[in-house]
Specification:
The complex is a heterodimer of chains A (179) and B (101). By secondary structure, chain A is mainly α. Chain A is 70% helix and 0% strand. Chain A is built from 7 helices and no strands. Chain A has helices at 2-23, 27-47, 51-75, 97-117, 123-126, 139-148, 152-173. The termini of chain A are far apart. The relative contact order of chain A is 0.07. Chain B is mainly α. Chain B has one domain (4-88): Helix Hairpins (Orthogonal Bundle). Helices cover 73% and strands 0% of the residues of chain B. Chain B contains 3 helices and no strands. Chain B has helices at 4-24, 28-49, 58-88. In chain B, helix 1 packs antiparallel against helix 2 and helix 2 (28-49) runs antiparallel to helix 3. Chain B is elongated. Chain B starts with a helix and ends in a 13-residue tail after the last helix. The mean pLDDT of chain B is 89. The chains are: A mainly alpha (179), B mainly alpha (101). At the A-B interface, helix 1, helix 2, helix 3, helix 4 and helix 6 of A face helix 1, helix 2 and helix 3 of B.
Chain lengths: 179, 101
């Protein structure tokens, strides 16, 4: 029972803070609410018994991505420190209508699909008694073995891509040297 | 035990919030945040289905890959945003409409 209550509190936190990020006029507050969304997403990951993914979410997103975003926001709005009201953009307006319509219709389609799909009845999930995760299982053990055997090639490709992205980002962000 | 469809509904809602942000925001950083929402919604589905696949752990492994790739994408995108700001003095994508000098 307590599990359900905490789960729904976390999911309400995710959806409310994500909605506020989109609706808020003040962009600094929006970026800090983004932090709340990512943290409660990590909470939801724990409920799917993926504790290592949850920790990675906290480390990578909250520790890396969010700091980068705040840096970029402050560097690309140098006058925000003088008058914070300058970054306010109107939340309501006719130019938001197409986005709302597309997002709302897409949500209706997704909900219809989810309600009809009945995921508990899929064959491989119904027959997964032996391979269902239990809360006492050590997921890091399985993840480590799989990363070094079955998913070794994707792992190496991702590491190469990460290095390329870091070199590219450093190259893009450097100052041009005058000769 | 929380039913799978609840995870799917939450991730659908988060995906649509991200879609709305991408479609209608006037700041490149907010568009990037919308993309992050969509990626996180997809990761939630991966991880929720991975509960029934303990030995292969495909969902969790690819959730980790997706998080790493999202971080790499954010690093490059923010560097590009800084360059665009240095050139145009704005990061509103509707005002950046010239490719030439």
């Amino acid at each position: 029972m307590a599990e359900q209550v905490v789960f729904y509190i976390f999911s309400a936190l995710v959806l409310l803070s994500a909605f506020m990020v989109v609706v808020l006029k003040n962009q600094v507050r929006a970026i800090f609410l983004f932090f709340v969304t990512l943290f409660s997403m990590a909470g939801l990951f724990v409920f799917t018994l993926a504790d290592f993914v949850a920790i990675t979410q906290v480390v990578v997103y909250v520790g890396g991505v969010l700091v980068l975003m705040i840096f970029t926001f402050l560097l690309s709005n140098r006058d925000i420190l003088n008058n914070p009201d300058a970054t306010r953009v109107s939340a309501a307006g006719i130019h938001h209508l197409p986005g709302m319509v597309v997002a709302g219709l897409f949500f209706a389609v997704l909900i219809a699909v989810v309600l009809q799909s009945n995921p508990e009845q899929i064959e491989w999930i119904k027959n997964a008694d032996k391979s269902t995760l239990k809360p006492t299982d050590n997921t890091i053990h399985y993840l480590g073995i799989n990363l070094m055997t079955r998913y070794l090639v994707p792992f190496e490709v991702v590491s190469l891509l990460l290095m390329l992205a870091l070199i590219g980002a450093a190259h893009l962000a450097r100052k041009e040297r005058k000769i | 035990m929380i039913p799978l469809s609840h995870f799917m509904i939450i991730s659908a809602a988060l995906f649509c919030i991200g879609l709305y942000a991408v479609l209608s925001k006037r700041s490149a950083i907010m568009i990037l945040i919308g993309i992050e929402f969509m990626l996180n919604a997809a990761i939630l589905n991966f991880v929720a289905f991975s509960r029934y696949d303990k030995f292969a752990a495909g969902g969790q492994t690819f959730a980790l890959f997706a998080i790493v790739l999202a971080a790499a994408a954010v690093a490059v995108a923010l560097a590009i945003i800084l360059n665009v700001y240095g050139y145009y003095k704005t990061i509103d994508p509707t005002q950046i409409d010239q490719l030439r000098d």
